[in-house]
Amino acid sequence: MKWIPNFNSSNSLRVIFVIAVFILLFLSSIAYKHNQDLNESSKLVMHTYEINIQLERLMSAIKDAETGQRGYIITRNARFLTPYIYSRDKVNTSFITLKKLTADNKPQQENLQKLFKLITQRFVSFENCLKYSDPKTYDKRKLDNHMFGGRILMENIRFKVDEMNDIEKTYLKKRLKIYDAEISLSPLFSISLFLVALCFILLSYRQISRDFERLKVFNKKLLISSGLISESESIGKFSTWQWDLDSDKIDFSDNQFRLLGLEPKSFAPNKATLLKYVHPDDKESVAKAIDGILDKKHLPFVYYKIVRPDFEVRYFKTTGKLVTDQQGSKILLGINFDITDEHLLNIELQERNKELEKSNKELASFNHVASHDLQEPLRKIQTFISRVSDADKEKMSESGKNYITKIESSAKRMRVLIDDLLLFSRTNTTKKEFIKVNLNELLSNAESELAEMIEEKKAVIKVSKLPKLSVIPYQVEQLFINLIGNSLKYSQPDIEPEISISSEKVNSSDYPEILEQSVKKFHKITFTDNGMGFDPQFKETIFILFQRLHSKTDYPGTGIGLAICKKIVENHKGHITADSTLGKGSTFTVFLPD
After folding, report:
1. Which residues pair with 317 in a beta bridge?
2. What is the C-alpha to C-alpha distance for residues 582 and 580, in angstroms, rounded to an integer?
3. Contact at 8 Å (CB) between 423 and 564?
4. What is the DSSP string of 272-320?
5. Which of 112, 282, 315, 523 has its CA 20 to 30 A from that of 67?
6. From CA 282, how far away is CA 286, in angstroms rounded?
7. Which bin fits 546, alpha (ψ -120 to 50), beta or left (φ > 0)?
8. Would you tell me the crossing angle of helices 561-571 and 398-429 to the nearest 10 degrees?
């Protein structure tokens, strides 16, 4: 199947100019924003001026009231009271205006409140001066006191007005600086906008002029690419095809014919010829898959066999997707894979898996039977040794007594080894039934199992709240027994063991190297002790079956306990790690999926 590119010159021109217009609109929006900022700066400057004017008016009204009051007191002419009477309304009007102008300025609002209190006090002083200057209520001492107090209030009012003016002058200085900067940028920005627009127009023209040259180069590359695709199909044993559902015309790539064992273009492809080479066992399923394309809008993976003209059977895998071109035609694009080699390999792998499964079952059976059969002679050895009385031992030589002691010790170690092997075998072979349980209950059972050893060692176990999880209960209980028992066994002499068990929920993404990323959340359960510890270079080795870091004469054990722990955690799709420093204790961390 070959694809021939169809370039429409007018479409290319439209696309280029649409991009240019879009860029111009974008730049225009930036210019509009700049003008808006300039306008906002102008408003801020005017805002400062207006506050200054209102403060001037406020001060002027108070001065008029003061002048009118003095004129009236001196002349007792009521016409002098006219400015005083109207001054209160002027003050209130200016104050309301100032309150609106400083609504977003908390310091100025506070200053305005203080100023209003001073002005109110000044008008009270005016009233008292008028009262005690009246011949009927004349009191020279009180009049002098209020006149003097009024002068002090007037000085305070002037001081507060000057303070507000100084603040506004500071704002004005900053706003004028911003305003001047934006004014100076306007011509530069306009020229820049023009030059950028001109550059884009020139670039668009250049792009149009180079379109034809690029078209030639692209066609040449397309021919080369078609050849490479054809070679890739031959090497990769796949082919491509397209089916125009409106005209019911099918077009095969050359390699499709070769996969069918034919020469390219040896027949006209159609639905009938497509099914002709399908194996009789698979024709019905393939036909149903093709008929369902229109409903599903794609062809899901279909596995089937084809029969070549030389009667050779090959295994195919086909998929496809329904697309609609610019003219509205529905075309199914498909790809076929010859998976014969993979199919035969899968059959071989399945056979090997069956053999491996059979071998594992035989091995598990052998392990189980051998372990149980070994117990019978071991039981007899221990029974007969137990029948040797102390009197009989006294009659033996020292070497005989030593032999009896060594036989008893070896029999005990054999018993522990067989029990651990059976436990490890059950961990591998027993039915894994997951039940949601509270891990605190399993931990409590483990502590009960180890109660005698905990009491003997005088151990202290600190436990935080553990979660509820779907687990194999008896296995997790055994995990807790082994980890706590390990800490008790390797405690330091003359130091009471302390074991801390904590839990937290973590993300698998925080531990990409050790945790399965398909599970998002894990519960991290940490066992920390103050035991003798071990060399960190053995933190992986200790989980290997029969691996011991100490002599069996120093510490009892078989080297299976931690291997069982690892197997239990793996049965739960989790992970276990160990960290330690000699003489400073160990930390075992268990990750269980949420």
Report:
1. 303, 337
2. 7
3. yes
4. HHHHHTB-TTTHHHHHHHHHTHHHHSEEEEEEEEEE-TT--EEEEEEEE
5. 112
6. 6
7. left
8. 0
Query: Taking a C-beta distance cutoff of 8 angstroms, is the pair 161, 59 a contact?
Result: yes
Angle (nearest 5°) at CA 274 between 272 and 277: 105
Ramachandran angles phi, psi of 68, nearest 5°: -60, -40
Asked if 525 and 594 touch (Cβ cutoff 8 Å), the reply is no
Residue 240 CB neighbours (<10 A): 21
Cβ neighbour number for residue 45 with a 10 Å cutoff: 16
In the numeric block, which tokens belong to residue 421? 């092997």
Question: Which of 51, 56, 159 lies closest to 108, judged by CA?
Answer: 51
What are the Cα distances from residue 200, in Å, to 9, 23, 154, 223, 306?
19, 8, 66, 33, 58
Q: Is 503 helix (H, G, I), strand (E, B) or coil?
A: strand
CB 525 within 8 A of CB 466: yes
Check: pTM over 0.70? Answer yes or no. no
> Which strand ranges, in their side-by-side order, compose the sheet holding 249-252?
249-252, 238-244, 330-338, 313-324, 298-307
CA distances from 174 to 110, 167, 185, 344 (A): 22, 11, 17, 83
- The two beta strands, 298-307 and 313-324, are antiparallel
- Give dist(CA 5, CA 220) in Å, integer: 11
Indicate the Cα dihedral angle 499, 504, 510, 512, nearest 10°: 70
**Amino acid occupying residue 112:** L
pLDDT of residue 501: 93
* Cα 363 from Cα 346, distance rounded (Å): 25
Q: How far apart are CA 562 and CA 566, in angstroms?
A: 6
Q: Is 323 helix (H, G, I), strand (E, B) or coil?
A: strand
∠ CA 545-547-553, nearest 5°, is: 130
The rounded distance, in Å, linking the Cα atoms of 273 and 279 is 13
Sequence letter at residue 130: L
Chain centroid to CA 240: 39
What are the E-state strand segments in 63-162? Answer: none
Burial class of residue 324 (count of CB atoms within 10 Å of its CB; 0-12, 13-18, 19+) = exposed
Phi, psi of 333 (to 5 degrees): -95, 130
Distance CA(333)–CA(10), nearest Å, equals: 28
Contacts of 97 (CB under 8 A, 6+ apart): 54
CA–CA distance, 330 with 320 (Å, rounded to integer):
13
| DSSP letters for 466-481 | PPEEEE-HHHHHHHHH
Residues forming beta bridges with residue 503, ordered by sequence position: 525
| 365's tokens | 């059976």
Place of tokens 């008016």: 57
pLDDT score, position 7: 42
Q: What is the pLDDT of residue 535?
A: 80
Q: Which residues pair with 588 in a beta bridge?
A: 527, 578
Residues 6+ apart with CB under 8 A from 223: none
Q: Which residue, chain included where needed, has tokens 């899968």?
A: 346
Query: Do residues 523 and 502 make contact, with C-beta atoms less than 8 angstroms apart?
Result: no
- Please identify every stretch of the chain with a pLDDT value under 50, giving residue numbers as ranges: 1-7, 551, 553-555
Map tokens 């400015």 to a residue.
Answer: 83
